[in-house]
Design brief:
Number of strands: 7
Largest sheet: 4 strands, antiparallel
Strand order of the largest sheet: 1-2-3-7
Distance between the termini: 30 Å
Order of helices and strands: EEEHHEEEHE
Shape: globular
């Protein structure tokens, strides 16, 4: 990953459990949508980063969801995934970067 920019906390965060998506409305009016699966695959915790480095195959259920999310201070979010994983912190800058990488970004601008 590239060096992350410091991003201001968004205006709104919505977890849509039934659809298994997370929506974020950023301060600049951009609304992004992420699938729970894409977020789970993008976990950058030490365990997941190590597994990626050594090429160890980790199977992630395509039906994975987010049971709970927590705001981590003013810096980002921590997700509790339905597969039991909860260790990764997702800073605001990383979430904004993921929108570009995963195609999760919507072009919708909100005033």
């Amino acid at each position: 990953m590239s060096v992350q920019k410091v991003i201001e906390a968004p205006r709104e965060v919505r977890l849509r459990k039934a659809q298994k998506v997370l929506e974020i409305l950023w301060q600049d009016g951009l609304r992004t949508t992420y699938s729970c699966l894409a977020l789970r695959k993008s976990c950058a915790c030490s365990g997941c980063a190590r597994a990626q480095q050594i090429g160890s195959l980790t199977l992630i259920d395509a039906d994975v969801g987010i049971d709970k999310l927590e705001v981590s201070g003013v810096s980002g979010l921590q997700f509790h995934f339905s597969d039991g994983h909860y260790r990764g912190l997702y800073p605001w800058g990383y979430l904004r970067e993921l929108a570009d990488l995963t195609g999760g970004q919507s072009s919708e601008q909100v005033a």
